[in-house]
Amino acid sequence: MLEIEMKFRCPDLQALRRRIEERGARPAGSRVDFDTYFNAPHRNFAETDEAFRIRQIGDRSFLTYKGPRIDQQTKTRREIEVELATKPGTGAMSAEMLLALGFHQVAVVKKEREMFHHSIDGFDVEITLDRVENVGHYAELEIMAEEPKLPAAKAALLQLASDLGLTQSERRSYLELLLARH
Q: In the chain, how many domains are there?
C-alpha cells in the first residue's frame, strides 16, 4: 500500500479549518500522537530516506515502516503499519525490545491532531491539522492507495490542495523538521 501525502506549513489553522468545512469535509475527532523514531543498527534511515517508528495514541501502539519517497511532488512512499497489542505499556516494551536489538532512538515527535475525512474523485482523503511540538502548525492531506491508482490519487490530492489554497508543499517529515531545529 502506498501513502500519498502532502504537508503544508499553516500559520492560520482556523482559516484553513473553515475552508475544509466549506468543502464538505467531515470532522473525525482529535487526538495526540507520540511518534518515537528509531534508526537501525545496520543502516542509517536518514541516508536511505526511510522511517521506522512506534506511534502511541492513548493505549494504542503502532509499529510503522515507511520506505523511501518515490515522488518529487508529494511524499509518496510505501507504508507498512501493524497495530501492537492494546494494553498499557506495549509501546514502551516494544521500544525496549528495539533498543535491545541494537536500534537507536532518534527523537520523539508530539503532534496534537484535528482530523477530517473528505472524498474527492473516488478517493477517501484524511486531512489533519497538526500542532507539532517544537516544529509548528501544519496541514496534511493523505490518501492510501495501491500502486496502479497512484497517478489518479496524486492528481486528486493536488486538486484538493489547490482547492484549499495550499500551495507551498513541505516534503520533509516532522522528524526532519524537528532535527533541523537542533
A: 1
